[in-house]
Design goal:
By secondary structure, the chain is of the alpha+beta class. It is built from 9 helices and 15 strands. Strands 5, 6, 7, 8, 9, 10, 11, 12, 13, 14 and 15 form an 11-stranded antiparallel beta sheet that branches. A 4-stranded parallel beta sheet has the order 2-1-3-4, with helices on both faces. Bound molecules: adenosine-5'-triphosphate.
Length: 292
């Protein structure tokens, strides 16, 4: 059996390299022959992972934050042979690890690699790239670009919340056309979210009913509302009751096409994505993750 450990030495508090030995020891005991690689720049994790797929590795471990994990998964999805995926979260938010109940403490997450249990989980295709958590269009979507790396290190999830609330205070809306499966929604929206998992930007209750393997996107259209209603919607997000709000339209979809008469950017798993129009589809239970 062959395992590749993909290490981003710059993730989180730059401590990834300190954990490599522990991971190698655990995997060696499980009988793996190991190749450890370090990323040096953007997309290295994707290339390493593609290489692991082509060379029929059995396991790929991502040691880094959500960015590294996302790049690793992008290297995995289009391949015929897809190794199992191990996740050691070292980032600020670690949404995918949260959604899969993988411990956020690296030592504990490393012990999960001893497990023989795996879970097949959905991935989302967004134009030509892949995501595992969420696509957002609108106010909150833009907020994450305003969070500086310093704020992220110091305040974590709170940094996103603060910037998000600042953006929300502007109550700007966006004209959207959303085609989902066989239906169309057109109107002014403050924020549109399409979630694959329950955990987004560290809020584990944003979409509580979303399961990592249910094969659908959980979509929320937050319509044009005044400030008071918006405050109530914001607090319902934290309580896991967003879909029950009267100015929120909730539906599930396997496919989506989103367009606007305005030039709008998107946010895909916390990073800036393509501008509208975009198409999104779910690839059900497409990757297999090692879980506790
Ligand atoms: N050696 C490197 N130096 C600088 N950047 C790198 C290096 N290797 C990879 N990267 C880039 O760093 C980006 C951020 O990494 P990652 O998300 O793992 O860490 P993070 O930013 O600390 O985590 P989080 O986003 O959860 O806060 C990756 O998307 C990758 O493109």
């Amino acid at each position: 059996m062959k395992a590749m450990i993909i290490v981003n030495p710059t993730s989180g508090r730059e401590e990834a390299v300190d954990y490599v030995k522990q991971i190698e020891d655990i995997l060696q005991k499980k009988g793996y022959e190991i190749k450890t690689v370090q990323t040096e720049k953007e997309l290295d994790a994707t290339k390493y992972c593609q290489n692991a797929c082509e060379n029929k590795f059995d396991l790929v471990v991502s040691l880094g934050g959500d960015g590294t994990l996302n790049e690793t998964i992008n290297g995995l999805v289009d391949q015929q042979h897809r190794p199992k995926l191990g996740i050691i979260p070292l980032g600020t938010v670690n949404d995918f690890a949260r959604a899969l109940q993988i411990p956020l403490e690296p030592e504990k997450a490393i012990r999960v690699l001893q497990s023989d249990r795996t879970k097949k989980v959905d991935v989302g295709r967004f134009n030509d790239q892949y995501f595992v958590n969420i696509v957002a269009v609108g106010a909150l979507a833009e907020a994450s670009y305003d969070v500086t790396p310093e704020q992220k290190t110091k305040f974590g999830t709170l940094a996103y919340l603060t910037e998000g609330l600042k953006k929300m205070a502007s109550t700007q809306t966006y004209p959207l056309r959303i085609e989902h499966d066989e239906k169309v929604w057109e109107g002014d929206s403050f924020l549109f979210l399409a979630a694959l998992t329950n955990s987004t930007a560290g809020f584990e209750k944003l979409s509580p009913q979303a399961k990592v393997n249910d094969g659908v996107l959980h979509c929320y259209i937050i319509k044009k509302v005044n400030m008071i209603r918006l405050a109530s919607i914001a607090s319902s997000m934290a309580r896991g009751e967003l879909r029950n709000q009267k100015d929120v339209e909730y539906f599930t979809a396997e496919n989506l096409k989103i367009a606007s008469s305005e030039d709008l950017v998107t946010n895909v798993d916390g990073e800036e994505g393509d501008r509208l129009p975009v198409s999104i589809e779910v690839k059900p239970q497409h990757i297999e993750v090692v879980i506790e």
